UniProtKB/TrEMBL annotation:
Protein name according to UniProt: RNA transcription, translation and transport factor protein
InterPro entries: RTRAF
Region feature Disordered, mapped onto this chain: 76-97
Residue ranges crossing the lipid bilayer per the database entry: none
Length: 134
């Protein structure tokens, strides 16, 4: 959608890239103008984007990369000790590799779950729900 694309470009410039001074962003912010493509092309040259304005996906990817670089540069101390989500998930996966180890068999919810499972599987009832579970 053309309007969404233009709004996205304006948002990136206003919030993250901030290449232009606020008062110089008027032409880029006027997303309904017929001259907006010219303003966008000038903007792309000003930020040294290597792609043509017709290459939308490449342009968006490049601008997002620029925004991330600038965001990191502004907040390097905040991000320097960050770990990727994948690394955090790897730790959690190791902890959760044996989920049955941490089960509390005395929990009433556990007992109710075993009973419900037995009913679903049509397993004969037993006085000891752990025997029934086996």
């Amino acid at each position: 959608d053309e309007t969404e694309f233009r709004n996205f470009i304006v948002w990136l410039e206003d919030q993250k890239i901030r290449h232009y001074k606020i008062e110089d962003r008027g032409n880029l912010r006027n997303i309904h103008s017929e001259d907006w493509p010219k303003s966008f092309e000038k903007y792309m040259k000003d930020v040294n984007c290597p792609f043509k304005i017709q290459e939308r996906q490449e342009t968006v990817d490049w601008l997002l990369g620029l925004a991330v670089r600038l965001e990191y540069g502004d907040n390097a101390d905040k991000y320097k000790d960050s770990t990727p989500d994948g690394a955090k998930n790897a730790d959690n996966t190791a902890k959760n590799a044996e989920p049955l180890i941490n089960l509390d068999v005395n929990n009433p919810d556990f007992k109710a779950g075993v009973m419900a499972l037995a009913n679903l599987l049509q397993i004969q009832r037993h006085d000891d729900y752990l025997v029934m579970l086996k």
